[in-house]
Amino acid sequence: MRPFELTAPDSVEAALSEQGTFLAGGTTLVDLMKLNVLTPQRVLDINELPLRGIDTSDGLRFGALERMNDIAHHPGVYPVISSALLQSASQQLRNMASIGGNLMQRTRCGYFRDVNTPCNKRKPGSGCSAITGDNRMHAILGTSDACVATHASDVAVALVALDAQITLASSTGTRTVKLDGFYRVPGETPEVENDLRPGELITEVFVPKLDWARHSTYVKVRDRQSYEFALCSAAVALDIQDGRIVDARVAAGGVATKPWRLAAVEDALRGEPATVRTFEQAASIAADGAKPLSANAFKPSLLKRTVVRALIEGSRA
Amino acid sequence: MTSRIDGPLKVTGQAKYGADNLFPDTLHGYIVLSTVANGEITAMDVTAAKSAPGVVGVYTPFDVLKLDKAVSSVFGETWVPLQTKEVAYYGQPIGVVVAETYEQARDAAMTVEVTYDEKPAVTSFTDGLATAEEPPEIRGGAPNEMSVLADGVESIEDALAASPVVVDNTYFTATQHHTPMEPHSAVARWDAAGLTIYSGNQAAHLQAEELSTALGVDRSQVRCINPFVGGAFGGKARTSAAGFLAAAAARALDRPVKVVMSREQVFTATAGRAATAQRIALGADKDGKLIALRHDSVSSTGMDRSFVEPTSHGTSREWYATKNLHISQKMVPLNIPPVTYMRAPGEAPGSFALESAMDELAIALNMDPIELRLRNNSTAPPGKDLLWSSKHLDECYQIGAMRFGWANRSPHGHEDGDWLVGMGTATAMFPGLRFPATVRATFKADDTAEVGTGGADPGTGLLTVLALVGAESLDIAPDRVTPVLGDSALPPGGLSGGSTATASAGSATMVAAVELIDQLVKLATSAGAPFEGLEVTYEGGRVLADGRSMTFGELLRATGRTELTATGSSAPGEELTKHSFSSFGAQFVEVKVHKLTREARVTRMLGVFDAGRIINEKTARSQLSGGMIWGVSAALHEGIEIEPSGRFANADLAGYLVPVNADIPDIGVHFVQYPDTLHSDLGAKGVGEIGVVGVAAAVANAIHNATGIRVRHIPIRIEDLLDS
């Protein structure tokens, strides 16, 4: 960790008027600063800003500084969001990490985290170590020759499935964007992970009202039962009426460079009977276009299985 | 059931581990590691580091802290850092930066620029199998290759060919690392008396030997203090780079120096467990009696070739009754960090192979896996005349099967909702060993006693055991006995390794107690003493005669003494010529595997153990359940990913997975208690390592029972179970 200057602005306006790296829960930023991956000269502690509140009266509205556990345990929050949050990280991390920070968390790619190795995301143009290296945990969808790093968030997968929006504030005003469109695939510029502009701060997360999202679930498949990132995950919400699927939301995690909405799977589900056979048929296209790496040839199969399992469990929810 | 005496100190943060010793003026050292796996360092630019804030010293192979060969009586030579420009693995200590604060040392270390003449690194274990080497020496000096053949049988191949049923497969186990909670660390300071060093280690007197030889000072000038050790598991048997560098830098700079490795550094700058490949061929008759057992083992090792993981020697050499046996051991030297002892070295990976193979044989015979093992129960190791001193493995299996509900097991598992459920079993054995140990016992005038020895309690519960055995031997209440460990100024107390500490230190405690009581009696009856000229007895901490009695404290005060001390020693001896010694156990595991997504999770575990007399059931239970968790970890989680460059891809606890609480069910541990007084007067055998033995195989066997998929490598992960 390099020496840095720490300030704690007391208003959103003050925070936006200063230049620096925002610190919320610190569970990504401080971690990466210890590894010298991030070396900000100035850190702005935003924890005292009034970006709080959970409002479930019309859709779900979360202040960006709400902690993961507080949202997860709120009774009005859709199960797919609670479940994704509660299967994330550990109790201690969930008590610290904010929802806004969660959406901004960096990849867990081991080469991004080791300054002694090439990484295009950390050091543009230096090369990608993962493509020929240890890539079992890496992405099979949305990848490029420059980067195959997986997006690490669980709750972002659930939020993308539910068409969530985020509010971004800067010294020149605020704007609202869909979370799905906010994230970028790496392409030739893996260092650019999203549409955040310099000086912008996430102030709020909004999930549009979707009553049938009460029937939703998040399945996370991983190498141990807790405190581990997804090898593959699926967020599912199903609107089933009289045994028929009226509408569906499906997104996958652990397999892609950003939270991966599976619109084609949703299309394949709509209008069909809510049976395991339908789920299997719809899931059979979930991994279309996947490019497995040397150590994760199993992921397309696992993705399809995970989607089937999530659809089955979602149909029971 | 006695709670850990040092438990309250540990859970309230009052126990002072090595790195907790801070003295005024202490400097902090941060180790610099290599970033290539093979080559020579041609230059190290330390200009920026030397001028960085707070830095007082930068040491490298170009500006060296002189260290000689480090040698101990048990381990022979141990590697010392910075004495060569040659790099043999990625993450090798190649420098140390010493500064006023830890942060200053760490930040300055980041600025060191290293130039290498890099050479191609040899890092693939599987590529090296074809050209594996003969190892220099195996535990106990056994030959690398050995056979036991029945009369008239020419070769193991003939014995296998003549066997009606044969299973023949190769099994692989991953490179592992102990990575104990307390990272390798040391605080060293010098004064007129020499060096005092505070560093977690498994045997203070061996560390003192290594440091005195490396530093070129007399053994009497080195004092090693380690009353608390935050986990060791074999990885702290030898002095660490942190220990050597702290000691040498403290001498060079004439100030106390503290060196603590980071978690990532522990993975490469210390030593871990070898990867292994093991081919096992079992030949049996139709009734399941073994006719032939062949076990050919290969282990990875560092380029120093300092250690070989003896998997076939650690298991098949002794485990089953077979008329024909052949074992061999080879090694593949690689540009990887050195390997060393790690909890059940040999037995843990060896039992994965042997006990998986036994399960495969049971299936080939259509026989219950427990029945197969009981039919091959041995009364002595194959080809040896020395019978097991005490063996109740059959009882372990009988009790375990009953408690675990083995009778409910179907040959093809069963379903529970979305999950496939299976049960597996495996035998566990670990040799009954002892080391020479000396214990000092002391009666004090305040009617307490002290029992001390230089051994270590790396979380095993030895400190509590020492108090219990001391109290029993001195016939007083345990709360009147103060146990003392972890100081090289105490008599050498063996080694907390090889599951030997209780039997070694405990036996010596019994000898010391007899001697101390003898001295007390002499004192009581000596001229001018309260019991002069009388025939006295000793009981319950009192000397008795003629209807009178005095406590030992009263007696000491009456004779103007503050204390009375005796030492006692014990070592393995004649018993080794009369019997074979081992602990035994039966492991039971139930797993569930999700029908679709194929995660394997352990749902129930039971271990039934025959380890002689159990001195303290509470800490013994912890030892064994901890070992069993290690087995689950090996089966489903642990494995170093070694890249072609030699870099460890997952050298931290985010990437090197071990189980979390959610992975571990309630664990049953049961003892059949038959004191083995042929092994030692104490009757106790080891419990430190046997808990891990067999568990990985029991998990793999349970997974096979649940899914029909046989996985012959560990860790077993989701992708191994997808195709069905």
Describe, in plain words, how this protein is organized in 3D.
The complex is a heterodimer of chains A (317) and B (724). Chain A is globular. Chain A contains eleven helices and twelve strands. In chain A, α4 runs antiparallel to α7 (155-161), α9 (263-269) runs antiparallel to α10 and α10 (276-283) packs antiparallel against α11 (299-316). In chain A, a hairpin with a 6-residue loop joins β11 and β12 (260-261). In chain A, the strands form three sheets. A five-stranded antiparallel β-sheet of chain A has the order 4-5-8-6-7. Among the domains of chain A are: 5-45; 211-316, Enolase-like, domain 1 (2-Layer Sandwich). Chain A has helices spanning 12-17, 29-34, 68-72, 79-86, 91-96, 99-103, 155-161, 179-182, 263-269, 276-283, 299-316; strands at 5-7, 21-23, 42-45, 54-55, 60-63, 165-170, 173-178, 201-207, 216-221, 232-241, 244-253, 260-261. With 724 residues, chain B is α+β, with helices and mostly antiparallel strands. Chain B folds into three domains: 7-120 and 178-269, Aldehyde Oxidoreductase, domain 3 (Alpha-Beta Complex), CATH 3.90.1170; 139-175 and 273-432 and 578-721, Aldehyde oxidase/xanthine dehydrogenase, molybdopterin binding domain (Aldehyde Oxidoreductase, domain 4); 437-571, Aldehyde Oxidoreductase, domain 4. Chain B is 25% helix and 26% strand. Chain B has 17 helices and 30 strands. Chain B has a seven-stranded mixed β-sheet, with helices on both faces. A six-stranded mixed β-sheet of chain B has the order 9-17-16-15-10-30. In chain B, α10 crosses α11 (369-375) and α13 (462-474) runs parallel beside α14. The model of chain B has no long low-confidence stretch (mean pLDDT 97). At the A-B interface, α11 of A face α3 of B.
